[in-house]
Design goal:
2 domains; about 15% strand; six-stranded mixed beta sheet; Rossmann fold; about 270 residues
Length: about 270
């Protein structure tokens, strides 16, 4: 019993486990800031370089207009795309001052999203030869790693036709996503197992009292309560993304583990 009492002093371990679950809940629902965090800045830079590499080489003149991408709420991705394309020397990027002047003449703010017709109108006004038009389909981050999906098309302004097929950019690739998901899954399972083990020990006194009653009904209620709490913990750690199969599996594992722990407590009380 002395060893068990020492274990009971480790209640902080359960608090850590609950803190992890609470963080998962907060991270799932918290509002994202308008300013881009470092992970999304990094993935956006990689996406812009990927687009630049796919751009075809064209003959002179090659003045290029890159209007603000649809879905780029901060303007960071558009600015980065302009910079990377300009550094590649594949095109001559129109100066920001010229774009600002033309937009002012048209009575348009750059913060406004452009459809293709509006972008073409701006391109003709700036005397651009090409237009790089597109949108951000998704832009997020998870576990310190950003993800982005973009659809970008290069148009010839003179006849408004695409120079090349639309570029579809999805980063990170599936291998990186799988590795990240596996690490998150393993960490979540370990945190959950700690919670299953320590929860009956934290509530050792009422659990022991339930076992001492030798009442099947009371013991069943104690087992049911521990199982439900463990299942809710698994649900929170998973990011609230349980399907029915995972729910049933979590219930069975929790029930089996708690039955074994209660049996051990009963044999050593």
């Amino acid at each position: 019993m002395l060893g068990l009492r020492k274990i009971l002093k480790l209640r902080w371990a359960v608090l850590i486990t609950l803190a992890v679950a609470s963080w998962q809940l907060y991270d799932k629902f918290r509002p994202r800031p308008l300013e881009l965090d470092q992970p999304r800045q990094e993935i956006a830079s990689k996406a812009c370089w990927a687009i630049t590499k796919q751009l075809p080489s064209v003959d002179i003149p090659r003045k290029l207009l890159v209007p603000r991408l649809r879905g780029d709420h901060t303007g960071f991705v558009t600015d980065t795309l302009r910079e990377t394309v300009g550094r590649s020397a594949k095109f001559d990027i129109l100066s920001p001052s010229l774009l600002v002047r033309v937009l002012a003449e048209l009575g348009v703010e750059e913060k406004e999203p452009y459809d293709l017709d509006s972008a073409m109108k701006i391109a003709r006004k700036t005397e651009a030869d090409y237009l790089l038009d597109g949108q951000i389909d998704s832009f997020s981050y998870d576990d310190k790693q950003g993800s982005i999906a973009m659809s970008i098309t290069l148009y010839r302004v003179s006849d408004q036709t695409p120079v090349a097929p639309t570029m579809q950019i999805n980063l990170p690739d599936e291998t990186s996503k799988t590795s990240l998901s596996l690490g998150k899954w393993v960490g979540g399972v370990l945190a959950w197992m700690l919670g299953i083990f320590f929860l009956p020990l934290v509530f050792y006194a009422p659990v022991k009292k339930a076992l001492a009653s030798e009442s099947n009904g009371i013991i069943f209620l104690a087992l049911l309560a521990l199982t439900l709490v463990d299942t809710l913990l698994a649900w929170a750690i998973s990011g609230l993304t349980f399907g029915w199969i995972m729910l049933v599996l979590a219930l069975l594992i929790s029930a089996g583990a708690n039955y074994g722990i209660l049996t051990w407590i009963d044999n050593n009380r």
